Each structure stands twice: as structure tokens, then as C-alpha cells.
What we know:
It is a single chain. The chain is of the alpha+beta class. The chain is 22% helix and 29% strand. It has helices spanning 33-43, 48-66, 97-100; strands at residues 3-9, 21-26, 72-74, 78-86, 101-110, 112-114, 120-122, 130-132. The strands form three sheets. The protein has a three-stranded mixed beta sheet, with no helix packed on it. Strands 3-4-5 form a three-stranded antiparallel beta sheet. Strands 6-7 form a two-stranded antiparallel sheet. A hairpin with a 3-residue loop joins strand 3 (72-74) and strand 4. Helix 1 crosses helix 2. It starts with a strand and ends in a 22-residue tail after the last strand. The model has no long low-confidence stretch (mean pLDDT 89).
Amino acid sequence: MAVMYKLRQEKNPKSKFKGQWYARAIAIETVDTATIANIMQQNCTVKKADILAVIAELIDVLKDQLQNSKSVRLDGLGTFRIGIKTKPALTAEDFNVTKNVVGTHVLFRPQAKVNKDKTRNKALLDGCRVQELPLNMIEKKKKKDNTPVPTPGH
């Protein structure tokens, strides 16, 4: 299998790339925790219920550690940490958490290894292939008279 993509045309009138085409990765479905547990159960001797319990505990511990200002590295996956979004203050003395911190978010840095040629290879992308989404999977837009609009690249 491969990562599927669809072609999109830049339509922003202010973009220097207006009218040009680029690829966007498409997720063809969402795999939930139960499905992951089923797949894992088929690949090892651990039962689905045990896998679900471990995943639930991992989420709780990850949340707790991140909210205690720690980064969390899951070997083979990557490192998580919390970032904050703030509005500026004119001086350090003027900075106030309530007034200046406007949000939090999770940052993820995939694990990578450095190759002999000094390039970085991200663990989750090792062996990744990319291909265009097959025509029969594309939701076609309709013209006003209900005739399908041709899809670029097909």
C-alpha cells in the first residue's frame, strides 16, 4: 500500500503559485483504537482487552507527564511535548499568564536516525511510497447541470 494523494489547484489570488497544481495526502479512512488493538492481537499473543488497557494507560500517563512540563519519548515513534501560544507583552514585567497565554498544543517530533550521508530518516516514514488516489475513490464534483467535472490527471 502507499500514501494516497489528490491534486489540488492553488486558488488563493494572493499566492505567487495561483493556478499551479500540487499534491495533498489523503487519508482514505480513520483507524480507531479498537481496530489497532484487533490488528495487534492478530500479530502477537496479547489479547485485545489487554492492548486496550495498555493504550488507555499510555494516554493517561502521557497526558500527566506532558502537563508536568516533561517531554515524552516513545522509542521507535518519537517525542511529544507541550507548546504554548502567547500574545506579546511590551516588557517582562507586563507579561501575565492569564492575559498573554492564549493556547496550548501538542508538539510531536518523529524519531529519526542519521544516515551515513548525514540525511535524516524518520522512523514512521521508512519505506513510505506515494501514489495518486485511484479515480474510483475520488468524490467527483458536479456541475450545475449535474454532469461530472473531469478530475485533473485522469
